[in-house]
Amino acid sequence: MNATILSNNHKHYPVLLNEILSIISPQNGGTFIDCTFGLGGYSSAILNFPKTKVIALDRDINSKKFADSIKHLNKDRFFFHNSKFSDLDKLNLENENINSIIFDLGFSLNQIKDYKRGFSFESKGSLDMRLGLNKFSASEVINKLDEKDLVKIFKYFGEEKDSKRIAKSIIRERKNQLIDTQILVKIINSSKKKNYKKTHNSTKVFQALRIFVNKEISELIKGLIKSVKILKKNGIIVFVSFHSLEDKIIKTFFKLLSENNKTSRYLPENEKKINILKVEKKKPITPTDEEIKINKPSRSAKLRYAIKINDLKIIENEIFEKFKYLIDIENLSEKL
Ligand SMILES: C[S@@+](CC[C@H](N)C(=O)[O-])C[C@H]1O[C@@H](n2cnc3c(N)ncnc32)[C@H](O)[C@@H]1O
């Protein structure tokens, strides 16, 4: 789920903010990249400390209005780009000395509450689900892809147990009409073998579609690789994630770059790998009960961070290979 909530009094609660500030230490000044600006919760908190500079990005152009109001107050210290974090390397950051890069993955409550965008199963309109800078919408996925492709998306990106039944019903129903949000919710309800009390029947399929439409798997892998490349030595990368797939990718990446010393000491010097990252806490940091009480969606958040201790050598192939089965599913979109 998302990190951001607007409560009834419209107060904005960025998830795990105090924990993040204590990890990245903005009180010492420096340059920070906020890769998922959203409503600017983290960016504003960092800018409250003098001698800080924030470079922020968000793929959703709707974030720009929040960015503009921050820019107004911090002309020389704040810079916003409407970009995807997979394009971090295109932002001309060569001359920047980056202290920390922060990712708060997923979507904000603002985005899910905008029912025209189709992220929520309460939406009444078309199935869209594009966060911004996308190539296709969820409607195209549901109304055009083959049954077996839909099964893979629901199964691997949503861990939906009834993927086959749901995909079959979609194929049957779309012969009669274009499937929009409410029709999809009805199809899922009638296809589920069992109704779960805790979560809405549609949660998993909606999550799967959002991940597929926004190519969240390759976005995350590219974001991980590129952020380690541009970070200065002793700089810190911080990730807040909200579902197990994201956390698994972050954990694997951190492990791959921090546990090379375990390779045999008898290997020739030129074949020995060095550690790129230092991971101080193996277990993720999670919100306190107090935070969950005021900001319920924060309950599934997991924070992991790592310190860059050496320059990144080529590891693209290794990490993409580990998650090839997920990238292959993402690439089913080439059929659209
Ligand atoms: C959970 S919200 C961030 C909230 C933010 N930390 C705050 O305090 O307001 C996630 C944001 O990341 C953006 N986002 C998701 N994937 C992205 C990507 N690949 N590149 C850039 N922005 C992305 C979304 O559009 C959304 O605004």
Helices and strands in order, then pairings?
Layout: E1 4-6, E2 12-14, H1 17-24, E3 30-34, H2 41-47, E4 52-57, H3 64-73, E5 78-81, E6 98-104, H4 109-113, H5 138-144, H6 147-158, H7 163-173, H8 181-191, H9 203-213, H10 216-230, E7 231-241, H11 244-258, E8 277-278, H12 289-294, E9 302-308, H13 316-322, H14 324-330
Parallel strand pairs: 3-4, 3-6, 4-5, 6-7
Antiparallel strand pairs: 1-2, 7-9, 8-9
Helix pairs in contact: 6-7, 6-9, 7-8, 10-11
The structure holds S-adenosylmethionine.
Brief descriptors of the model:
single chain; 336 residues; alpha/beta; Rossmann fold; DNA polymerase, domain 1; 2 domains; two-stranded antiparallel ribbon; 14 helices; 9 strands; globular; disordered N terminus
According to CATH, what is the topology of the largest domain?
Rossmann fold
Extract low-pLDDT stretches.
1-10
Named once each, the bound ligands are: S-adenosylmethionine
- Give the tally of β-strands: 9
Total helical segments: 14
- Series of H and E elements: EEHEHEHEEHHHHHHHEHEHEHH
The profile of the biggest β sheet is: 7 strands, mixed
Arithmetic mean of pLDDT: 92
Query: Strand portion, in percent?
Result: 5-15%
Task: Please name the CATH architecture of the largest domain.
Answer: 3-Layer(aba) Sandwich
Adjacency order of strands in the biggest sheet: 5-4-3-6-7-9-8
The CATH homologous superfamily of the largest domain is termed Vaccinia Virus protein VP39
So what's the CATH class of the largest domain? Alpha Beta
The shape, in one word, is globular
Structural class: alpha/beta
Assign a percent range to the helix content. 25-40%
Question: What is the CA-based Rg, rounded?
Answer: 21 Å
Total separate domains: 2
> How far apart, in Å, are the first and last alpha carbons?
27 Å
